[in-house]
Amino acid sequence: VQLAESGGGLVPAGGSLTLSCAASGSRFNINNMGWYRQAPGKQRELVATITRGGSTNYAYSVKGRFTISRDNAKNTVYLQMNSLKPEDTAIYYCNAQEELSYWGQGTQVTVSS
Fold first, then answer.
1. Burial class for 109, CB neighbours closer than 10 Å (0-12, 13-18, 19+)
2. Per-residue pLDDT band at 5 (split at 50, 70, 90)
3. Phi and psi at residue 71, to the nearest 5°
């Protein structure tokens, strides 16, 4: 399974960005999909996940600001990020779980103060 992320960039504090991740090459249904992030010098952390049925889970730090959604027909997951803060600056990684767990290459999100 290959994951192609897009949508990262530089945005001022308070701004918005939408990340997309399209999965290809899967032989079976993709179950959970999600977004994780890793800031410099820190461990990778969960941002949000979504099941195939649409149940969502968010990190406390992004609740109310970020929204995860998916299009099962397109095997694509989205992350709408609003009210961005400088502490949201990180590389954002897409994850998809089929038989195995797969990761995208990451996309940089930088929020300037």
1. buried
2. very high
3. -120, 105
